[in-house]
Amino acid sequence: MGYHSQWSLVSVIVAFMLFNAVVSTAVGQQTLPDSRQQISAAVSPAPGSMQAGAMVLGYNADTTLSTLREGTNNLICIADDPRDSQFHVACYHKDLDPFMERGRALKAKGMSRKEVDLIRRSEINSGQLPMPEKPMALYSLSGPADAFNYDDATAEEVSPTYVVYIPFATEASTGLATKPASKGAPWIMEPGTPWAHIMVTTGETIDKQVETESP
What we know:
Elements: H1 3-31, H2 35-43, H3 48-51, E1 55-59, E2 65-69, E3 75-78, E4 86-93, H4 97-108, H5 113-126, E5 136-144, E6 148-149, E7 154-165, H6 171-174, E8 187-189, E9 197-201, E10 206-209
Parallel strand pairs: 1-3
Antiparallel strand pairs: 1-2, 3-4, 4-5, 5-7, 6-7, 7-9, 7-10, 8-9
Helix pairs in contact: 4-5
């Protein structure tokens, strides 16, 4: 292959790469919902009476997490991560935030779930990481990537999960087994740990409309 042919081939490859980069950037900008849309999706797992007052964390164009709306009640809701291939949003009691935020920070460093748990357990035991010893709720919705319609704030065929964190709770202290006794029955997960929690999964999918207009 001659010099000019090689240069032409390189030029074509470079042009193709630049084109792909531009297209990828444009697609990313198109698919990232705006702040109002992210807020609507983020609060969708919460009871209707709690949606308008929840604090909301969402994603910027560079996928960093930031506060989209300050809250007036005890819930913090997190928008769907645009880097994830599935739709998942969650709302939890604000006293869980140090624990949740620490988990996100450690995960961002590439740590495994086991490594994250070991570090958080050590920090909770030392008092470095606060974990209130009281019941705290979490609500979540999960589904396929297109499960939430951002135009009309409606979730379709999503799976709800309801969680009550009771730090250090056990089977003996709650009377709950580590597996559901029947479909939809509550059970205890991670008993005896600082993040022990009661799980309720219905096994059903639901449709849900955001009940309050996000301010």
